[in-house]
Amino acid sequence: MFFAQFILMDLFICGIAVPRLVSFHKYITITVDYPGFPQKQGDDVATMTTRRRRRRRRRRRRRRRRRRRRRRRRRRSRRRGGGGGGGGGGGGGEEEEEEEEEEEQQQQQQQQQQQQQQTTTTTTFLILPILAYDT
Question: What ranges does the record list as Acidic residues composition bias (predicted)?
Fold first, then answer.
């Protein structure tokens, strides 16, 4: 009985505890190799990931701006098209439709942002352990 316990403990220590400790230690002190690696100061994985995130955020902002511009153009053209012919009553109806469309677009944007955030977090969590075990 004692022997079985010993084997189980051994397996636990070798299989779970030690690798976790090692990988955790490497999470903190891990450095990324790149051309001219020794000259520059060592980059932590944390800094690398934050840089990537920042880049992505910038890209997102740019995309958002572009989308907004496109939308504005479309709306203006619609208003001009409908305003001349329909008069007062027609204009009101069109505005309501536009508001609904705006809400839909905002919801879509939020969903897309959430998806992007999820993907970034999952990728970072997938990449970090792999890097930790490689080094």
Answer: 93-105
